[in-house]
Every structure is written in C-alpha cells, then in structure tokens.
Amino acid sequence: MKWSKRTVQSLVQKYLTGHQPRRFKLAVTEAVRDGDYWYVLVEPNKDDVRAFDFSEKLADTEEDIRDNVKGAPNLLLVPVLPTDPYDR
C-alpha cells in the first residue's frame, strides 16, 4: 500500500486513541516523510506536560500499529511540546 500523509496521520490518530493518557489528550499535528520513514509529530493538549510523560504512549502506539496493520508504514512518533506564547 502506498501511504499518503493524510492516511498516515489518520492511522496514527486512530491507534493513538487506545493509548491516551488520563490527564491530557494527544493529537497528531504533522507527518513528514523522509525516505522510507514517516515522522509523525504528536502534541499534548496541555502546556504543563513533559515529553517524558507521554513518550511511552507513543512507543506503545508504534508497536500496536506494527503488530496490527498489515504492510504498516515505517513510523517514528515524535513528541512535540506546545509552544509557550511567552517564548515568541
């Protein structure tokens, strides 16, 4: 299967649903292809979250996709922190 940006984002968001943390939600914000890999940016909906707080959820989501999607794309889910409006 040829994976488009939109299908990769939808796939990851679908599988991410089963791995959501309790105190915040994660959402796919972007997907970028580089060679054989898709780098999918995932951001929490709260400002007071550290990447450490959800990196395991991303790893679990990657594994879930590899194990359950035939012909799954090569993925690396990348934790992204919300931009602090005071840092601009």
How do the strands of the widest beta sheet line up side by side? 1-2-3
Order of helices and strands: HEEHE
What percentage of amino acids are in beta strands?
Answer: 25-35%
Indicate the structural class: alpha+beta
Give the helix level as a range of percent.
25-40%
Radius of gyration: 13 Å
Shape: globular
| Terminal residue distance | 41 Å
Count of DSSP strands: 3
**Major β-sheet profile:** 3 strands, mixed
Low-confidence stretches: none
Mean of the pLDDT scores? 93
Number of helices: 2
Brief summary:
With 88 residues, this protein is an alpha+beta fold.
Helix and strand topology:
Layout: H1 5-16, E1 26-34, E2 37-44, H2 55-68, E3 74-79
Parallel strand pairs: 2-3
Antiparallel strand pairs: 1-2
Helix pairs in contact: 1-2
Description:
The chain is built from two helices and three strands; from the N terminus they run αββαβ. It is of the alpha+beta class and 88 residues long. The radius of gyration is 13 Å and the shape is globular.
